Every structure is written in structure tokens, then in C-alpha cells.
Amino acid sequence: MTSFNDFGLAEPILRALAEEKYVTPTPIQAQTVPLALEGRDVIGIAQTGTGKTASFALPILNHLIAKRLRPAQKACRVLVLSPTRELSGQIADSFRTYGRHIRPLAIELAIGGVPINRQARAVARGVEVLVATPGRLLDLVNQRAITLNQVEVLVLDEADRMLDMGFIHDIKRVVAMLPKQRQTLFFSATMPQEITRLADQMLNNPARVAVTPQSTTVERIAQRVIHTDKAAKNGLLAEILKTETIDRVLVFTRTKHGADKVVRTLEKSGLAAEAIHGNKSQNQRERVLAAFRSGSLRILIATDIAARGIDVEGVSHVVNFDLPNIPESYVHRIGRTARAGAEGIAISFCDHEERTYLRDIERLIRMSIPSTDRRTGDRSRPEPAEEHHAAHRQNGRPHKRGNQQQSRGKGGNGHHQGRPAQGERQGQRQGQGHGPNRNGHHAGGRPQAPRSEAAAQSEPNGIGNVTFMQRSGEPRRNAGHRAPR
Ligand code: AMP
What are the Cα distances from residue 90, in Å, to 107, 146, 398, 416, 474? Predict the structure, then answer.
């Protein structure tokens, strides 16, 4: 499928796509749209950033054009369930964008954080499309503000995240209220067992499509890890933000409190930043996101849940201030950069306590992430890389960690407490040559992502010497999280 015209979509949809300058369907769209247009149930294994929203929105809009029907009062014809307010808002925006030439077309949101009565009024006359988070939807159902017995198409988006967020029972309750005769489109970035079971219960003879297995998406992103002491993270972050050529950066912390703290410490360093997390009001979140989108805010600090579904183009960097304890979250986080084919840079801080998280992440993405060492103090314990390296050897696959060796060779060992490590000074020296020049441009250009070259290439940057290594091409036996066929 090389063009949207090949799908046989109705003219008003094609016109909107042309206005959006969408020329070529993405792989998930090329596979999902024809199946969904046939009326099939579909399980799509795809992450945010692959174009999956259009892959369900386009056939749904086509269905609404083909079968014109006034929605009954307090009913919706299409129900989209999504885990977060932000993602719901973006899905509704996508429907509005692709459906802008279709009339009548009522698209409403049922999400927390805004007065429920306003939402009840909005759906009172019936809507074509309702995009909802499960909790608020059930509140509306309980208030008898909406009935779900007229739903023709159900979309469940980011099912794995729904599971993580504890929505599984709410989803089952919602599904029990829907007509048995319906079309269901089910999307998840990963397919853990519980999600497979849920899909089996919800879908009828589904077609399966899987795109961009996680490791190929992360391949497009230049990743690096900086081993650091916990207490040094704030200073390191400020240094990176000042030395890297950054268009927009998303900084992830594990907790809401941590996000606020980072904002405060950056402000002390003269860097304007804002945080987005669950304690912020819907208005605050929207204001901050709009500023980030427009470019007036360059540094956004977020927690995993708040960042879910943030769809902002031009995020050049993702910084993991804290490594996530769920390895899949790492993939979701760094996927905020490298959207729609663009490349991005992901930098992760790893303190002593986070070394097991790093190991789990590297296992998931089947890559050894290049690292630099900025720790000070005692180094008598084995490096995580050494443990990791040993594990790889046990699996029969030697896994060269050129950079580790390199940074150690340059003084990674034997640092004295309280003195900057040699590797650090080395990094600073390099930073002078390759940091931003007076115009804010990188003299050395942006480091490139590792591709499948066999040869490692050494690329200096403002933080330290980084060597990108080839990823292992051999499939792992324990790759249960991988997309099924
Ligand atoms: P999604 O995975 O649905 O969040 O989409 C990621 C981004 O890609 C969004 O900003 C979309 O507007 C954009 N996008 C989706 N499909 C296409 C396409 N076929 N051509 C260009 N951009 C697209």
C-alpha cells in the first residue's frame, strides 16, 4: 500500500489527509486500515509514534460516512478507551483532524479532571465518537448520562498500559455493557499473557498485525547511559541541558515529587522547566503541554503516566533522570523522541541502585547501551557491565562493550573520592570542542544513532566518549514480551 488513495477511503477523509500532508501510510496503517474497513476485529501490536491512531480512526470515520445514522440520545456509536487524559485528548484531536470535512460528526471526551456534568451535557444528544478513560466512563454510566448498548465499534488503545494502571476490571465491566455484535480494534505495545487473555475474551476471530517490534524502534534512537552517583544527577542534568544542542527535551523522573524537585533545581541553575504529572490540574497540564508544543517551553519534566501519549513532534532528547523499574517504560519513554521517522537522542542516568533496572532494560531491547562513567568513589565492586558481560558470555554470545573498556582504560578505575574522575575531565575537554558554539549549534553535529554496522564508531560529545556498538541479532529464548506473530 503506497498511497492513502489505495484504501478506498471516502473523499472527505482523503481531503483531510492531503491537507495534513500525509502521503504514505505507515506500516501499521497499511496493515490495519484494509482489515478494519472489511469490518474485521484487529489486534494491533504497535507503540505510540507508529501512526496507530490514524490506523483505527480512518476506517472508523469511513464507517460513519458509509452508514449515516443519527446517534440515539445519551448514546455513542464509537467508543475509544484510552488509559490517560492526555492520550484521550490526542485521540479526539486526531478524529477531529481526519474528520474535519464530515458533518455532522460529534466527538466528545469522557475523562477525569474536568466537571462531569459538562461531559454529561455534551453527550446528552448522542455522539458519533466518545473517547474515554475507563473510570470516568463508568461514572457517566452510573449517573445514567450515557448508555453503551448502541456501540458499533470499540477501540481499546494501549491495553498494556491499561493493565499497568489497574484498569482491567473497569474495562471488563465496560465490555460487558456493549452489544456482542460490534467491531473491536485492540492495540497494545506489548502482549503480556493477561493482555492476550483479555483480547481473547473481547475479540471475535481477530486479525493480528504487528509492527516495529520494540527493538527496531529503539534502534533509531541514539542511546547512552551515564553511570553516576545519585547526588550528582541534578548537576549532570544541568550540564547536559547546557551543553547539548537541544530543541525540546523530556526529562523523566520516577515520582511526582522527584519531578517537582528537578524543576526547582534546574531553575536554580537558570534553566526554565515545568513539570507535568498526576497532581497537576487538567488546566495546568494543558497549559504546560501547549507551551512545550509551541516551543516556548524547552524542558519538560514528566512521570511515566503523565507522559503517556504526549505526542509532541520535535522532541530531540529524552533524559531518564531516574531509570524506570518496568523495562517496557524505558521503550515508551525514549519513543517520545524519534517520532514519525525522526531520530532522537536518549540519555539515561544510572545510579548504583538502578543497575538492575538497566540490566532488565538491556535484556528487553536486546542491546547493550553504550555508557560513560561519571561516578566518583570506591569502585571495588564489579561494574554492572561486567556482570552483564558475563551473563552474555554465559548465553554463548560474546557482547563487546567497547566503551566500558574504553572509559575504564581512560581512568574509570581508581578514582579518588572527591576528585573529578579522569573520564569526567576527559568528557569536559571533549565538551569544549563539541559543545554548542555561540550560535547554539553543535560544532560536531548531532551524534548518530547506532545502526547495524558491525564496526563500533567512537563519537565524542559534550558528556564523555561514547562508542556505539552493534546490537545482537540473535533472538533470545526468554523474549516473552516480544510481539507475537
Ligand atoms: P500515533 O502513533 O498515532 O501517535 O502518531 C504519531 C505521529 O505521526 C502523529 O503526530 C501523527 O500525526 C503522525 N502520523 C501518523 N500517520 C502519518 C502518516 N501516514 N504520515 C505522516 N505522519 C503521520
Answer: 12, 22, 44, 50, 37
Residue-wise pLDDT tens digits, 207-238? 999 885 544 567 778 999 999 999 999 999 99
Could you tell me the domains of the chain? 4-210 (3.40.50.300), 221-399 (3.40.50.300)
Atom of ligand 1 nearest to the CA of 47: 2
How many Å apart are CA 180 and CA 171, to the nearest integer? 15
Distance (Å) of CA 98 to CA 12, 15, 50, 158: 8, 9, 17, 21
Residue nearest ligand 1's atom 12 by CA: 51
Residues 205, 353: contact at Cβ < 8 Å? no
Residue nearest to atom 14 of ligand 1 (CA): 51
Question: In a mutational test of the pocket of ligand 1, which residue from 45, 52, 53 has the highest number of ligand atoms less than 8 Å from its CB?
Answer: 53
> Which atom of ligand 1 lies nearest, measured to the CA of 24?
19
Q: What are the CA-CA distances from residue 290 to residues 86, 115, 285, 342 (Å)?
A: 12, 21, 8, 21
How much distance in Å is there from the Cα of 91 to the middle of ligand 1?
Answer: 11
pTM (whole model) above 0.70: no
What is the tens place of the pLDDT at every residue in 160-206? Answer: 889 888 899 999 999 999 999 999 999 998 888 889 999 999 999 99
CB of 355 sitting under 6 A from ligand 1: no
Q: 34, exposed or middle or buried, with CB in 10 Å at 0-12, 13-18, 19+? A: middle
335 lines ligand 1 (CB under 6 A): no
For residue 124, the one-letter residue type is A
Which ligand 1 atom sits closest to the C-alpha of 50? 2
